[in-house]
Amino acid sequence: MIDKKEKSLVVIQLSGGNDAMNTLVPYTNGIYHDSRSAIHLTEDKIIDIDGSLGFHPEMGEIKKLWDQNKVAVINGIGYPVPNRSHFRSMDIWHTAESETIAADGWLGRTIREIDPKHKNVVTAVNFGRGLPRALVCKDVPVASVGDLNTYGLMPDIKGSVQRENALNYFSRMYGPNQGRDAILNTLGENGVSAMTGVDILSDANSKYSSSVEYADNPISNNLKDIAKVIFANVGTKIYYAQQGSFDTHAGELFNHAKLWKDLSDALGDFFEDLREHDKENDVTVLLFSEFGRRIEDNGSGTDHGSGGVAFVLGGSVKGGFYGELPSLELSEQVEGDMKYNNDFRGTYATLLDQWLGIDSVPILGKNYEQHNFINTGI
């Protein structure tokens, strides 16, 4: 069991390239309206936050957190020499390496630093199908959960006797055996880790109790499952989930609104749950996307761009704007995109050093300029 005040990080990937300009809306800027005749959001619809910028109209729950000084908006975020490929750009964010193809993900390396001897097989948990590259690292176990309610080995086996027999066979098949080769032993270790992780996470599910009613959609379900594991105090430090797709080439007004409605409402419920369980100051949430989108619309949506926006939320966050908001002036644009002016690895470094208390240099490869959005006094 971990101490009640152990800090954890929740990372939510906005897959597909979230449109920064229709998320943090420069609604008083004429260039914004002129460039987006088909999809601009007007002053009467956006949620004003400072007289010139506003949140998307479906971000009401995030605005409530903003009003409580619990949302940091990271402007102009990206990396040098932007790449508009989903695959390459996301790989850069996942590995924190923009010049070469890295083997390990930045969170995988973080998990290795936190638990170098693999004492806890649920130090990190991914909620969703597959395993994001950010969590991949050689010899680092990471649990991946589709739905905590049905999570487990051989869930279709209902009888207790049949299930126990099946688990015995599984244990003998995958348990440690010095007579096997290295590959089989690795499979064995992973199999035993999987069995241990199932027991731990299933127990977290059964013990959960809350008055908060989450909506029934994928991101709400994921955040509810994350809350269950947080409250179980099983030593999990890193949580990962995805929302998307934000690849809004067409039908952006409807699709973007639905994505942010689901996410904002889910975050509202999640933070209400954290407050109910006295955990709000112990959890920080990062929202990121692989790139922003073009300044001009394409008639019903937007194409791949560069400079974007990220958010950091939590009870220990010092809310406000961080990084410079990119200018929309033609002379400041980069091939029709907002200019990147804020390296995303500075945000990673801030979360590693100031939040998780982990030296960021071995993980990111060098020092990056950090922000001050973490309230270290809490």
Describe it for me?
The chain has helices at 30-35, 60-67, 86-95, 106-114, 160-174, 182-207, 218-232, 252-276, 344-356, 361-364; strands at 8-15, 24-25, 47-48, 54-55, 71-78, 124-127, 143-145, 238-244, 283-288, 308-314, 320-322, 342-343. It is an alpha/beta fold. The protein has one domain: Alkaline Phosphatase, subunit A (3-Layer(aba) Sandwich), CATH 3.40.720. The strands form two sheets. Strands 1, 5, 6, 7, 8, 9, 10, 11 and 12 form a nine-stranded mixed sheet that branches. A three-stranded antiparallel sheet has the order 2-4-3, with no helix packed on it. Residues 180-195 have low confidence and may be disordered.
Which geometry do the CA atoms define? Answer: globular
Helix content: 25-40%
Q: Radius of gyration over alpha carbons?
A: 21 Å
Distance between the termini: 22 Å
Kindly provide the name of the CATH class. Answer: Alpha Beta
Q: Structural class of the secondary structure composition? A: alpha/beta
Give the second-level CATH assignment, the architecture.
3-Layer(aba) Sandwich
* Strand/helix succession: EEHEEHEHHEEHHHEHEEEEHH
Question: Major sheet: size, sense and barrel closure?
Answer: 9 strands, mixed
Q: Helix tally? A: 10
| Extended strand count | 12
| Strand composition percent | 5-15%
Mean pLDDT: 88
Which fold name is given in CATH as the topology?
A: Alkaline Phosphatase, subunit A
Number of self-contained structural domains: 1
- Poorly predicted runs: 180-195
